[in-house]
Amino acid sequence: MSKPDYPIRTERLLLRPFTPDDHADLHAYQSLPEVVRYLYGGPRTPEETTDNLKLKMSVTWPEKEGDNLSLAVVHGGRVIGEAVLKYLSEAYRQGEIGYIFHPDHHGRGFATEASRAMLDLGFDHLGLHRIVASCDAHNDKSWHVMERLGMRREAHFRHHEIFKGEWGEEFIYAILEDEWRAARS
Ligand SMILES: CC(C)(COP(=O)(O)OP(=O)(O)OC[C@H]1O[C@@H](n2cnc3c(N)ncnc32)[C@H](O)[C@@H]1OP(=O)(O)O)[C@@H](O)C(=O)NCCC(=O)NCCS
């Protein structure tokens, strides 16, 4: 396991831990109903964003199982979204990625670009064997990102929970380390 040097640079983005100065940019998207439509919870109040920011800043690298690394994705000097890597299992070297972006920055491939860096972190730095991602089956934009990343759809859960007052549908996608290395080479 080797913690990366921040910021991580991709072709168009910088990824780095959140700082207290990021509150305004974070709140700009966490407060939007369209952004949280398929996420647990509703639009955040400024106080809820403050609490969430503290939580994000408390993990700068997933040292142990259960840790949730959330990196700020910076473009043009602003935080335009976040890319997430959760350490699900040490014993079985399993992780999970996620992503949330401000709508002003959708449709340019930024979520895919940032998520590629998170898969690199998971496989190259954390030594994971398998990384999953999940989304509401109606969240087309989200599972399109997973498919662009070369992840395979492993499951479609139907009516597995009540989500925002209705029966939920969930897709689970995954990619193995050797599949990622083959796709990258
Ligand atoms: C999920 C989410 C991050 C996807 O964002 P996105 O901008 O659609 O995804 P990408 O960054 O991969 O961009 C892909 C789009 O950019 C276009 N694009 C433009 N340049 C591109 C490039 N260089 N590389 C890849 N795609 C590019 C693609 O054609 C695609 O457009 P399309 O949707 O019209 O087909 C966004 O919808 C979001 O933040 N939603 C709210 C939070 C959320 O639901 N998160 C997921 C929870 S599971």
UniProtKB/TrEMBL annotation:
<dbReference type="InterPro" id="IPR016181">
    <property type="entry name" value="Acyl_CoA_acyltransferase"/>
</dbReference>
<dbReference type="InterPro" id="IPR051531">
    <property type="entry name" value="N-acetyltransferase"/>
</dbReference>
<dbReference type="GO" id="GO:0016747">
    <property type="term" value="F:acyltransferase activity, transferring groups other than amino-acyl groups"/>
</dbReference>
<protein>
    <submittedName>
        <fullName>RimJ/RimL family protein N-acetyltransferase</fullName>
    </submittedName>
</protein>
<dbReference type="Pfam" id="PF13302">
    <property type="entry name" value="Acetyltransf_3"/>
</dbReference>
<feature type="domain" description="N-acetyltransferase">
    <location>
        <begin position="13"/>
        <end position="178"/>
    </location>
</feature>
<dbReference type="InterPro" id="IPR000182">
    <property type="entry name" value="GNAT_dom"/>
</dbReference>
<keyword id="KW-0808">Transferase</keyword>
